[in-house]
């Protein structure tokens, strides 16, 4: 099984998602509760824009481990792209309850609140993320963008200035759109995935958004380069 699973991961890394789905499916026929196969099949389904099938896999995963904040966060993004905003926020609420001291839980919820028009809620979550991680330049940047939407121009400039100071960059290299800052999956930051890219507004597909989620502090320091890659990893 392990050899087949590793082959599935390599297919995902190479962009052969349909073949990966088939291979993970074969594993799951023999081992229905193999969470790593379910999880990576869900991500492959999402890459193929097969959102209903991805949702089925996440529902199965949460049936096995209902308090997994990573699964809840991923499913919340799915719900968002399925236009089920209440369900999306509910999953991210639950993820915050499970991991209340992790700043990226709040910044991820803030991003979806911003996208769904809850600007005050987004500000509150970005404030909480910054309180927990004062060096989070992405949250300062995104908070500034929300403040701009609310017409709080002085506050927004202060937020952008804080992000500039943390990043030590000049105005010309600063991004013009919100940046997703949802930190890496894994127990106690055991492994740090890396995704960061600017998002201009509301038009992103699921696979575009999910590929930007889960960022480490190191890659946050390079977010203005708009680098994004999806990492398939063993859970």
Overview features:
235 residues, 0% strand, elongated, disordered C terminus
Description of the structure:
The chain is an all-alpha fold and 235 residues long. Helix content is 61%, strand content 0%. The chain has helices at residues 2-13, 17-30, 35-47, 51-64, 69-81, 85-98, 103-115, 119-132, 137-149, 153-167, 206-210, 217-220. Helix 2 (17-30) packs antiparallel against helix 3 (35-47), helix 5 runs antiparallel to helix 6 and helix 8 (119-132) runs antiparallel to helix 9. The longest helix is centred in the C-terminal third of the chain and has 15 residues, at 153-167. The two termini are 15 Å apart. Residues 170-176 and 181-235 have low confidence and may be disordered.
List the SSEs and their pairings.
Layout: H1 2-13, H2 17-30, H3 35-47, H4 51-64, H5 69-81, H6 85-98, H7 103-115, H8 119-132, H9 137-149, H10 153-167, H11 206-210, H12 217-220
Helix pairs in contact: 1-2, 1-3, 2-3, 3-4, 4-5, 5-6, 6-7, 7-8, 8-9, 9-10
């Amino acid at each position: 099984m392990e050899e087949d699973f590793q082959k599935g991961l390599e297919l995902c890394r190479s962009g052969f998602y349909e073949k990966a789905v088939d291979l993970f499916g074969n594993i799951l026929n023999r081992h229905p509760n193999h969470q790593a196969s379910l999880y990576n099949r869900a991500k492959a389904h999402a890459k193929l824009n097969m959102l209903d099938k991805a949702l089925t896999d996440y529902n199965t995963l949460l049936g096995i481990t209902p308090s997994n904040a990573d699964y809840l966060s991923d499913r919340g993004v799915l719900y968002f792209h399925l236009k089920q905003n209440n369900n999306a926020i509910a999953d991210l609420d639950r993820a915050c309850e499970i991991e209340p001291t992790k700043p990226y839980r709040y910044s991820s919820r803030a991003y979806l609140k911003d996208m769904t028009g809850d600007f005050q809620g987004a500000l509150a979550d970005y404030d909480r993320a910054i309180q927990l991680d004062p060096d989070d330049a992405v949250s300062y940047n995104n908070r500034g963008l929300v403040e701009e939407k609310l017409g709080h121009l002085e506050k927004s400039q202060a937020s952008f200035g804080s992000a500039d100071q943390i990043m030590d960059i000049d105005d010309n290299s600063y991004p013009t759109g919100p940046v997703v800052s949802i930190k890496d999956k894994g127990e106690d930051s055991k492994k740090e995935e890396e995704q960061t890219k600017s998002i201009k507004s509301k038009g992103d597909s699921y696979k575009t958004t999910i590929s930007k989620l889960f960022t480490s502090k190191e890659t946050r320091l390079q977010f203005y380069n708009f680098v994004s890659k999806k990492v398939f990893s063993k859970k």
